[in-house]
Amino acid sequence: MSLPAYASTGERAWYYSYRVICGLIFLFLMFPIIVIVPLSFNAQPYFTFTREMLSLNPEGFSTRWYNALFNSSRWMAAIQNSFFIAICSTLIATTLGTLAALGLSRPHMPARAFITAFLISPMVVPLIITGAALFSFYARLNLTESFVSIILAHVVLGTPFVVITVTAALSGFDQSLIRAAQNLGASQTTTFFKIILPLLLPGVISGALFAFITSLDEVVVVLFLAGPAQEPMTVRMFSGLRENINPTILAVASVLVFMSIILLTTLELIRRRQERMRGMSPG
Amino acid sequence: MTDATMADMAASGGQELKTSDGRSLKAALKASQSVERRRAFLLVLPLLALLVASFIIPIGQLVTRSVYNPEVASYLPETSSALSGWNGEGVPDEEVFAALAADMVVGAENRTIGRVAARINREMPGTRSMIMGLSRSAEELQPPYREAFLADDEGWGEQALWRFLKRETRIITPAYYLIATDLEYNAEGEIVQRPENYQVYRTLFWRTAWMSLTITALCVLLGYPIAHLLATQPLRIANILMILVLLPFWTSLLVRTSSWIVLLQQQGVINDMLVWLGVVTDSGRLRMIYNKTGTIIAMTHILLPFMILPLYSVMKTIPPSYMRAARSLGATQTYAFTRVYLPLTIPGLAAGVLLVFILAIGYYITPALVGGDSGIFISNLIASNMQSSLANLKLGAALATILLVLVMLFYFVFNKLIGVDRLKFG
């Protein structure tokens, strides 16, 4: 959308003000995420830039909150718990979600629309309802304050993303490739592992990343289900933000921002690879 | 060969197409399709079973709990059946009192009478001590029971108490839904509005809806220009700008909420900047957090990508030549936009609006952290009810069910209009 030579003054004015408006909105989107990183190096226990920081005086900066974070056994245990829960639930969610997406995109799937809507529903049901319902459910089974209940809950919350991304990947899938493989003598299993899975992998990986980040980021359900031994970092952050607000949280937040950058880069690389491959295939 | 194929063959005079093993083609096709259907379903089955077992059943139990009211019916069984014959006028006769005395003896023995007393006390404060006091000496009560009860406490002669007990004999009760919508039974057993200072829930439902609408509107206002810019830029630039949308989307919700606390609080970055610029004085720092403003700003930021992504995917498919054609036919920029471009983006707009609204009305974390007292949502009230006593838990379940029904309604509309299979992220 470049400005044509015949544009009137009004159009010119609008063109540039539109750019400025968009710039401001981008600032609104990014500023809160960027600002947290320098603040986490604050030498003082404040949540704002000190005079030393603004004048770029090295004394205004320190890594004391990172030291506090990495030397705290409670924080480290919480981070470990978070990753343990996220990895386990991602593995299960990805397997079940991919299988379900494969079934859903078969031409003879009965009640497809209804079942899809049903499988996606954990994404839209308010988390507080899911959390409360799962809490009383697992309390009767004596399974609260256990990893089993938390992982199962996160599987439920993560699968919609896997189903969505894998179904999307399958919608562009050329079904004749399966027939071609079988025609050439491949068994069902060989076809799946040699033909279907490699082509679906980008969809599966991005679904898995979504499930992973959903689990890592989830607070409400774990607030209900986790005991002190399972406490993940989100619960610690949540109670930290509610009670004794402390810049260690900003250090954790910066680490998480760094992680989301890594995840986003991975996704972007997958997308580029897919685009390249699409460019190579005929049609 | 089955009867059906024989019949088919008879009908077509033996001219029917057959497979190589002699079955009718129609039947063979049907059989193979049903195998296909079963295979497809078997692939979905594991996830379906898991969802039913660890998501649908728990939610079903929560919903059931909101109407389930067993205390009076199961712990005062004799009284319940005796009360079914009472016409609701005045004070019941001897038969009901005798039944209650018998129930109390059993209840005191099994220690269930306390639960009944708690349930009744919640609706009629002060009755707990009356019931518990009498139940301790229930075994010593002598007929005529009616006089004995009334001698122990005059409260037993109140018509309202008995009407309440009669209502409570139903195992399924709408009582918690009434509270959840700020209604109650009056002494005559009619449904009336609660006193004004008790009307909290309806206000909160309205506030939740109203604030979610504001947030959705802000997301449209901020998301539309961005999506349009992304869709009309060359792919290389659009990809880079897209990262600016996706990074917030991928960043932890708690991280984004804590940044807004850092930015908006009175000693925070934005207030510091405003003081430095001289817009506000040091003593007149703005209160932008722990109230409605804080919730609206933070949630708009968090939900904005959910508006931009569906809008972008629709706008990307609109050929730029349409706008040029409209302009060359004499339309002004505004006219071409409102008559050509805007109608074409409506599917994306509808998807974004519904998605943001559905996610917003159930939000808990952000309002809890930055909402203070005036910026909390219905979810926060559900949470506080769920974390307290049993009776409040049922009220919480009723509130949760109402919210769930609302969300499911919007989800249904979303499904009908847009189709959940069209959802895409990133």
Q: What is the domain total for the residues of chain A?
A: 1
CATH-derived architecture of chain A: Orthogonal Bundle
Radius of gyration of chain A: 24 Å
* Number of contiguous helices of chain B: 20
Helix and strand composition category of chain A: mainly alpha
Uncertain segments of chain A of ≥5 residues (pLDDT<50)? none
What is the name of the CATH topology of chain A? MetI-like fold
Top-tier CATH class of chain A: Mainly Alpha
Major β-sheet profile of chain A:
none
Order of helices and strands of chain A: HHHHHHHHHHHH
* Oligomer state of the chains in this structure: heterodimer
CATH architecture term of the largest domain in chain B: Orthogonal Bundle
- The rough form of chain A would be described as globular
Your description of this structure?
The complex is a heterodimer of chains A (283) and B (426). In chain A, 74% of the residues lie in helices and 0% in strands. With 283 residues, chain A is mainly α. Chain A has one domain (73-280): MetI-like (MetI-like fold, Orthogonal Bundle). The longest helix of chain A is centred in the C-terminal third of the chain and has 33 residues, at 248-280. The mean pLDDT of chain A is 89. Chain B has three domains: 3-49, no CATH class; 71-168, no CATH class; 201-422, Orthogonal Bundle (MetI-like fold). In chain B, strand 1 (183-185) and strand 2 form a beta hairpin. In chain B, helix 4 runs antiparallel to helix 5 (94-110) and helix 12 (235-250) runs antiparallel to helix 15. Chain B is flat. The mean pLDDT of chain B is 87. The interface between A and B is large, with 92 and 90 residues.
